[in-house]
Amino acid sequence: MGLRISNTLSGRKDEFIPSGETVSMYVCGMTPKFHPHVGHARLFVAVDVMRRIFEYRGYRVRHVQNFTDIDDKTIARAQAEGITPEEVARKYTESYFESMASLNVLPAHEYPTVTGVMSRIVDYVQGLVDKGFAYVVEGDVWFEVGKFPDYGQLSKRTEESGMVGVRKDLEPGKRDPRDFALWKSAKPGEPSWPSPWGEGRPGWHIECSTMVRETLGDQIDVHAGGQDLIFPHHENEIAQSEAYTGCRPFARYWPHVGLVMTDNEKMAHSLMNFTTIHDVLGKYDPAAVRLYLLQVHYRAPMAFSEDGLVSATRSIRTLKLAYGGSDEPTEGECPEAAALLVRFDELVEDDFNTPGALGVLFDTAHEVNRGAANVPETAALRAALRTMVGVLGLPLDVEAPSNSSSAAPFIDLLVETRSALRVERQWAMSDRLRDRLAELGVILEDSPRGTAWRFSEDRT
Predict the structure, then answer these.
(1) Distance, CA of 83 to CA of 100 (rounded, Å)
(2) Which CATH class is domain 294-392?
(3) C-alpha neighbours within 13 Å on the C-beta side of residue 303
(4) Which CATH class is domain 10-257?
(5) What are the boundaries of each domain within the chain?
(6) Alpha helices of 372-407 — where are they, by DSSP H?
(7) d(Cα 214, Cα 21) in Å, to the nearest integer?
(8) Strand, coil or helix: what is 22?
(9) 428-433: which pairs have CB atoms within 8 A and are 24 or more residues apart?
(10) pLDDT in tens, 292-349
């Protein structure tokens, strides 16, 4: 039947037919304002699997992912840390790469940045003004939504319902509450760039439209991102891109990844309810973390759970046992291995169904683990299993760090005990627990949200 993708633009599951020899794929990346959290990891692992499945099915892929390296939030973080916005962006971009490498996320082919395409952003905004889709008011430039009749095609918001989530009060000079900023005039003490309308910096949405055009062209195959970006970010991207280029659709397939939730709220830096990947990888095997993230279909919301990570840690042992056998050559056919691969292929082609594919993977692992060593059937099954592992990107051949062992649940228990002692004001005993854990290489970090722990970097 071929690969099928749930497409937010069409509202259905569409057969994937690329526009050319190479699949062009753009992903809305991070605003590097702090260390990436589990919600970021879920998005980028999901997109990584999409890319791997494209390549597995024989497509060439051109994968571009941006960094929004200047933003209100990076400026605020710079002020809080006493460094420059450039230093903030560099620091947390490096943190992103470190975390994603641990999770075996393939590097994108190109990582454009907002500051790196600033002159092209100015040109893009000027083009929208010249074409009559934007207007200038005292150094600010606004996109005029009323001039774009197809506005709402992605989010399915009509002119009446489109006001949900939009500021009702008119900002100075704005003609319609739906209009959005393409260029913002400079504020005192903030970074700014020259433009025909005065010093300023771009609005959020125009940045991605420009970076897509500069790296992949006027029309692309796949545009991915989190479901929280459907409106207004992706809706506005479509409007300004199609208005500027005249190419429709701007992106042909829009797969959106569900959010990671903490206590029924989206995990986010702004809500201070996040768990960083650095902290998670301090406790758990990277393969177990990636397995955990793939156990829920990419479109569905996912509730963050330490119990889920503990369970994934147990499950990964089954896979490692099957994966780590000898590489005996296969001779002849193995119908069972072939049938398992067919099932696996059907599932990954059905909207990147990783939960179903993992089920087949574990079926294969169980067959390998119960088979006689080095017989042709077991070798063929192991070869099939390794193919599946590669498609899903599970880093089973990476040695788990000593700090991501089964000790994590016991450390959690000790931390909970210490917290209970602190509630009872038994300071001496709680301090003794903290010091003893420190001797074992476990660092406790107290905050108003509770106590987090991590292994010290010099622990052996």
Answers:
(1) 25
(2) mainly alpha
(3) 5
(4) alpha beta
(5) 10-257, 294-392, 408-455
(6) 376-392
(7) 19
(8) strand
(9) none
(10) 999 999 999 999 999 999 999 999 999 999 988 666 655 667 899 999 999 999 999 9
In angstroms, rounded to a whole number, what is the distance separating the alpha carbons of residues 164 and 232?
10
- For 404-430, give one letter per residue: b (16+ CB within 10 A) or e: beeebeebeebbeebbebbeeeeeeeb
In this structure, the chain runs to a length of 460
**DSSP string covering 301-351, please?**
-EE--HHHHHHHHHHHHHHHHHHTS--PPP-S--HHHHHHHHHHHHHHHBT
pLDDT of residue 449: 66
Q: What sign does the dihedral 195-200-206-210 (CA atoms) show?
A: positive
Residue ranges, the chain, pLDDT below 70: 1, 158-169, 325-332, 372-374, 398-410, 413, 424, 449, 456-460
> Beta strands 200-202 and 4-7: pairing type?
unpaired
Return the number of other C-beta atoms located less than 10 Å from residue 189's C-beta. 8
CB atoms near residue 317 (< 10 Å): 13
C-alpha 131 chain-centroid distance: 35
What tokens does 160 get? 């009446």
SS3 365: helix
Lookup: tokens for 234: 């992706």
Q: Are 395 and 402 in contact (CB under 8 A)?
A: no
Residue 25 to residue 17: CA distance in whole angstroms: 13
